[in-house]
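Hydroxymethylglutaryl-CoA lyase, Actinomadura algeriensis. Tokens?
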Amino acid sequence: MVEVGPRDGLQNEARVLTPDDKIALIERCVAAGTRRVEAVSFVNPERVPQMAGAEEVMAGVPRRDGIAYSGLVLNRRGLDRALDARVDEVNVVVPASDTFSVRNQGTTVAEMLDAWDGIAAAADDAGVPATMTIAVAFGCPFEGDTPPERIEYIARRAHAASEIALADTIGVGVPAQVRDLTRRAREAAPGIPLRFHFHNTRNTGYANALMAVDEGVTVLDASAGGFGGCPFAPAATGNIATEDLLYALHRSGHDTGIDMESTARTGMWLAERLGVPAPSLLGRAGGFPASPPER
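Tokens:
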């Protein structure tokens, strides 16, 4: 599980959290057992003010063996900032559609792939793994359905990646697409681990996540409280909630090493900080069988 609440969970919210609140969120996630956290984004804070203070956040996160913090980068300047801040991983977003790429990142897909080559090489020189996240892999709000052949092409270009993440940025995917794209990506980029990033915009996110697991995928993104969205994609609402996904995985017999109840409390805590209700359900309904009351 990769906890993306501190980055994707916050980037579309009206209320901007302080670096101290972001650090507190990360500390709560780590205390619950999370071992991979997408903590920050090294983008222009004028474009995404919710992501300001990345260096301050990275200076304050708990550094322990076995915990990896990643930072999102879109260009070489972002990578330099990330390396200076001592991230453990970098996450480079390469959209699958030109219109989304230009609106989100100011580059075409081809230009972003060229940027990826340089970022991945520099990250490798620094000994930092680089994940390529293929955004709008299932569908684009401006161009419609994403041809699966485009995902194959981009995945082949990700030969230097430590991991490829397929992102349903606007929550349009269904399980049949997950199965198809998993198999296509594996054929296009053999030996590179796959990860998925789902949004629950149309109530298919959890079904998609379980399909990915059935296909042998072992890494999923999720956001405490179910917060998240993209400021450059219309109607791109929340990520699948970490606590709700944990319920589905644990009840299905999978071990994540993350405490579900603690994560649910973090989701409710985050909702209070943001001043909006949490989209997640576990914080309201509770687990099953019900846990004994705390003493």
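Residues 109-125 form the longest helix (17 residues).
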